[in-house]
Design brief:
Blueprint (H helix, E strand, L loop, with lengths): L1 H36 L2 H26 L14 H31 L9 H25 L4 H28 L4 H29 L6 H12 L6 E10 L2 E10 L5 H18 L4 E8 L4
Parallel strand pairs: 2-3
Antiparallel strand pairs: 1-2
Length: 294
């Protein structure tokens, strides 16, 4: 299990590094294409790739840092570094790229000046290449099945990249058929994708940094697993929170009155092992109490 997890983490970091390299190439291609063609949606897409570069860089550094083992300063490890990086990424999305993309879209739609376009074939080719390149980190992270905050943030962003690029592709095709307004509309879609992604990233990672509790279903599963252990006659006062993609759990299990300390300790160990089958690397604090009188 540990080997599988380590492999998933390595593959996830490789996916983030692949994404960073791909976004760097795409930023250059899109920006050059914008200057050649004058298509506004290519400018919005170049901003999108610039933000992606910064975000992937944040997430890659955070993913590497979060692998550090727990120490005296951070007793539960560095997993929350991924949440901090994803939150910083969301702030970049909202404060810079989304607003700038909206500005470009509004300028194209209501600027009052007819736009001139050229080399639409180049714009189409670059967009198709971008769709293919953006799919690489998406497939790589999905294949790794990594569930860390950094990998999830990159996975969501890769999906939104594909949505925005297909919107750009449709917009360019419509421009080629004489619908100049499609440029501004496509740029508006790209800006909307950027802003939506920012909101998702911000909310998901803010919840984890605030100590968001797992779902009620997970609580019920944990209680059922604990009650299935021989010697456990009751479970109460379960509390858990998500920290850096890991579950931190505290719970009380009841054993028959008169149970010796050594046996009670063995019961706690069996409960811990049973929970570990469901939740990898969970931090469990299990208190053993004598069963209450009926």
């Amino acid at each position: 299990m540990a080997e599988r997890t380590a492999h998933a983490e390595t593959t996830s970091i490789s996916g983030l590094a692949t994404a960073l390299g791909g976004y760097t190439v795409l930023f250059a291609l899109k920006l050059i294409t914008y200057f050649i063609t004058g298509i506004g949606v290519m400018y919005a897409e170049s901003l999108h790739s610039l933000a992606d570069m910064l975000i992937s860089g944040f997430l890659l550094v955070a993913a590497l840092w979060s692998r550090k083992p727990a120490d005296q300063a951070y007793r539960y490890g560095y997993g929350r570094a991924q949440n901090v990086a994803a939150l910083a990424a969301a702030t970049i999305f909202i404060s810079f790229t989304a607003l700038e993309a909206f500005r470009e879209a509004m300028n194209k739609l209501f600027g009052g000046q007819a736009s001139e376009y050229s080399n639409l074939t180049l714009a189409l080719a670059v967009t198709v290449i971008a769709i293919v390149i953006s799919a690489f980190p998406l497939v790589k992270i999905w294949w790794s099945q990594e569930k860390g905050a950094a990998a999830r943030a990159q996975f969501i962003e890769s999906i939104n990249d594909e949505v925005a690029l297909f919107a750009a592709l449709i917009g360019i095709l419509l421009i080629a058929n004489g619908m100049a307004m499609a440029d501004g509309i496509a740029a508006l879609v790209v800006a909307g994708v950027i802003a939506t992604n920012a909101g998702i990233l911000w909310w998901e990672n803010a919840k984890n940094l605030m100590g968001h509790s797992p779902s009620k279903e997970l609580y019920r599963e944990i209680e059922a697993m604990a009650r299935s252990v021989k010697g456990v006659v009751g479970v109460h006062d379960m509390r858990a929170e998500m920290i850096g993609g890991q579950v931190h759990l505290e719970m009380h299990v009841e054993v028959p009155r008169g149970t010796i300390v050594e046996e009670a300790d063995r019961v706690a160990e069996r409960v811990h092992a049973e929970i570990g089958k469901k939740i990898e690397h969970a931090f469990c604090t299990i208190h053993v109490d004598p069963a209450k009188d009926e």
